[in-house]
Specification:
The complex is a heterodimer of chains A (364) and B (325).
Chain A: H1 4-18, H2 22-38, E1 46-49, E2 55-58, H3 60-67, H4 69-85, H5 92-108, H6 121-144, H7 150-168, H8 179-182, H9 195-213, H10 216-225, H11 227-232, H12 237-263, H13 275-285, H14 297-316, H15 324-339, H16 341-363
Antiparallel strand pairs in A: 1-2
Helix pairs in contact in A: 2-14, 3-14, 4-9, 4-10, 4-12, 4-13, 4-14, 5-6, 5-7, 5-12, 6-7, 6-12, 10-12, 13-14
Chain B: H1 2-31, E1 35-41, H2 48-60, E2 67-73, H3 77-89, E3 94-97, H4 106-114, E4 118-123, E5 135-138, H5 141-153, E6 160-166, H6 172-187, E7 191-198, H7 203-216, E8 222-225, H8 228-240, E9 252-256, H9 260-267, E10 273-275, H10 282-293, E11 302-304, E12 309-311, H11 317-323
Parallel strand pairs in B: 1-2, 1-3, 3-4, 4-5, 5-11, 6-7, 6-8, 8-9, 9-10
Antiparallel strand pairs in B: 10-12
Helix pairs in contact in B: 3-4, 5-6, 7-8, 9-11
Classes of the chains: A mainly alpha (364), B alpha/beta (325).
């Protein structure tokens, strides 16, 4: 006989296994344990001063949290887009180049090396939000109202985006010398935690509030699961899809703003290169079906941090340049296969049959 | 009535024909003094290097200098080949080519040769028989790497602990700039690679690589970055950790490409060395064309551009203005 408490415990455990967030948490735990065994100093955080004399925290964990910020923010938008339209936005990297370029254009005016900024940083940021949302609306219109496959619709901006970004600044590479601009991508004076971490947290809080207090999440899932029945229930599927792409645009603007403030400049051809693939990967790692429908926002965001954790770990272990993509690919394949909904279902079945076999034995 | 209309139509047609042929003749006369060149290049947005390269070509190949130049830009090889075919059909005098990819150029270059068009390759070479082109004006990336490594060796450090940040693996710039350093490290016991990673020309990835070395606490005294952006990323990581760099600093910073802002960093003493990748090829090409017009073939097929390395100790404002791209 099994004690009742034990049964409840096992059930709780299986519940956790079957929860979507289990996969990114497990992946994170594996990475943490691996690093703990290999070199515990991985988790050291030191408090020191940077060359400007400001206090800063540093260490691998800070690096991970700092550099995953853009990806985490993009994962928010990508999750919604995926859930609603059953496809992915692959124009994210190019759109970041555009939004970053807009920020610099507004701040620099016609002079690529201004002594002082031509507008306030807030104005520049808001204008870039507007532009990014317009491009998001463009993608959204193609997907929602013209019923074009998301990957094809966003391919347009994916191809043209970086040229548009370069054109916005007349092909020049502006550099902003005012240190205040760099605060957003590095450190606020006197605050030892990198600013992008705060920006990411703010975005997450806003997302959590929106999902909790509006019907956006519910409607998005309804549209993703079955647009026709959603329509019969009074939801406008096209509008919901459209809105998710506009939100993606907003996420892109925030991520683009962090990207340009990190170095106070931009390089159109390499900024945020291939970041769309990492954002899609974050959604997949979170166990979300890439064909749309139900989603877990927390899992996607956690997925983003797993990806950065992996990247930083590979840097730490000095994996040679030519082998780096191969290592990453192997880990990614394992994680994605494990987090695929079908595999989880199968695993659940196997687990249940083992349990019932065990229970049968014990009963006998 | 019909007859009148018909004769009117004939009149209009004949007048148009006369004007059209007149226009064509006038066009031919205009061309008389000008040398017609078709220029196929990569997209000027690709990088600061390409922007400077394109601007330099436009500075030289224009009507003031006796050229009738047409430009075509693409990062795609097939589009470039199609454009080359068009230029051959248009019977330009010279075809200048910076190929996006090395393969597939044989037949169109053969067509050009049959049509009596001189082909001059610039910046990038192609996999084709050298008899199909008269000259190639290119960078010697191996020499760029060697110049940089020789400069580093001349610093006479007791020990070289190098963070080597590579470009996109397999690109000619990466292969050339990596080769010389690898050889030096293999042959000298006091030269060590602390880490050798690719940041794929990306400043942010470079920052993460250097940050990783700093977090691990491994000592280093040289950062060898294969372009300026990655050197900038590396420096950001050093600044964050309060590690001094540049002239009189603890860490030597080396970059490539000679962006204007990078040379300014050199001038300010925050970096130590920047190697040139010379985008100014137009004057050399111009010289080759002038000689060919006078019947003089270039002495050798491959013409390397002069490329230097700048040292923070000797760089001047004039260098920044002249060589910065």
């Amino acid at each position: 006989m099994t004690a009742p408490g034990n049964v409840a415990g096992v059930q709780k455990l299986t519940g956790l296994f079957r929860k979507q967030i289990f996969i990114p948490i497990a992946a994170l735990l594996v990475l943490i344990i691996f690093n703990l065994i290999a070199d515990p100093s991985f988790f050291e955080i030191t408090y020191a001063q940077n060359s400007a004399g400001e206090p800063v925290l540093s260490g691998y964990l800070i690096t991970i949290l700092d550099n995953a910020s853009e990806l985490a923010i993009l994962a928010i938008g990508m999750t919604l887009v995926t859930a609603a339209s059953g496809g992915q936005d692959i124009s994210v990297g190019a759109a970041i180049a555009i939004s970053g370029s807009v920020v610099l254009r507004v701040l620099c005016g016609d002079n690529p090396r201004p002594e002082e900024m031509q507008a306030s940083i807030l104005t520049a940021f808001l204008i870039s939000c507007l532009v990014s949302m317009l491009f998001g609306a463009f993608n959204g219109t193609l997907v929602a109202y013209f019923n074009i496959q998301p990957m094809i619709a966003t391919l347009i901006l994916y191809t043209a985006g970086r040229s548009i970004a370069a054109w916005i600044n007349n092909n020049r590479l502006p550099i902003i010398s005012d240190p205040a601009f760099g605060y957003f991508g590095t450190f606020m004076p006197g605050i030892p935690v990198p600013t992008p971490i705060f920006i990411a947290i703010i975005c997450m809080i806003i997302t959590a509030l929106v999902l909790k207090f509006t019907t956006l999440g519910l409607y998005t899932q309804a549209v993703g699961i079955n647009p026709n029945s959603a329509k019969l229930n009074g939801i406008n599927p096209s509008l919901i899809k459209f809105i998710t792409y506009v939100i993606m645009g907003l996420c892109v603007a925030v991520a683009g703003f962090i990207k340009v403030t990190r170095f106070s400049t931009i390089n159109y051809s390499v900024v945020a290169l291939d970041i769309e693939m990492d954002a899609i990967l974050a959604v997949a790692l979170g166990g979300n079906a890439l064909s749309g429908g139900k989603f877990s926002m927390a899992s996607s965001i956690l997925g983003a941090y797993v990806i950065q954790f992996l990247t930083t770990t590979l840097f730490k272990f000095n994996v040679s340049s030519s082998a780096l993509p191969a290592y990453k690919a192997v880990v990614v394949i394992v994680l994605v296969v494990l987090s695929a909904p079908t595999v989880r279902e199968k695993a659940g079945k196997v687990w249940r049959s083992i349990r019932s076999a065990k229970a049968g034995k014990e009963a006998a | 009535m019909k007859k009148v209309l018909f004769s009117l139509l004939v009149l209009i047609l004949s007048v148009t024909a006369v004007f059209a042929s007149g226009a064509a003749e006038a066009g031919a006369e205009d061309d008389g003094g000008l040398i017609r060149v078709g220029i196929i290049n990569n997209d000027p947005n690709e990088s600061g290097y390409r922007t400077a390269n394109d601007a330099d070509l436009k500075r030289v190949f224009n009507e003031e200098n006796g050229y009738d130049a047409s430009f075509f830009y693409s990062l795609r090889n097939d589009e470039q080949i199609a454009a080359a075919q068009t230029f051959v059909q248009d019977e330009v005098d010279y075809l200048l080519l910076s190929a996006a990819g090395t393969a597939g150029w044989d037949s169109v270059l053969q067509d050009a040769q049959n049509a009596g068009i001189y082909v001059i390759l610039f910046d990038r070479t192609v996999d084709a028989d050298p008899s199909l082109y008269v000259a190639e004006v290119v960078s010697d990336t191996n020499l760029q790497g060697q110049t940089a490594v020789d400069w580093l060796a001349s610093q006479n450090l007791d020990e070289y602990n190098i963070i080597h940040i590579q470009g996109v693996m397999g690109s000619s710039a990466q292969i050339g700039r990596t080769g010389a350093l690898n050889e030096m490290v293999a042959n000298n016991d006091n030269w060590n690679l602390v880490t050798q990673q690719t940041a794929e020309w990306n400043a942010e990835t470079a920052q993460q690589i250097v940050q990783s070395v700093i977090d691990a606490g491994t000592p280093f005294n040289v950062i060898y970055a294969e372009n300026d952006d990655m050197a900038r990323g590396a420096v950001a990581a050093l600044d964050r950790a309060n590690i001094s760099h540049g002239v009189d600093g603890d860490v030597i910073i080396m970059g490539f490409d000679c962006n204007k802002w990078a040379l300014e960093e050199l001038l300010a003493g925050r970096w130590n060395y920047d190697g040139q990748a010379n985008p100014f090829q137009a004057d050399t090409i111009d010289g080759i064309i002038r000689n060919l017009e006078n019947g003089i073939e270039p002495e050798s097929k491959t013409i390397y551009l002069v490329e230097q390395g700048f040292d923070a100790a000797t760089i001047t404002q004039e260098d920044v203005d002249k060589y910065g791209i």
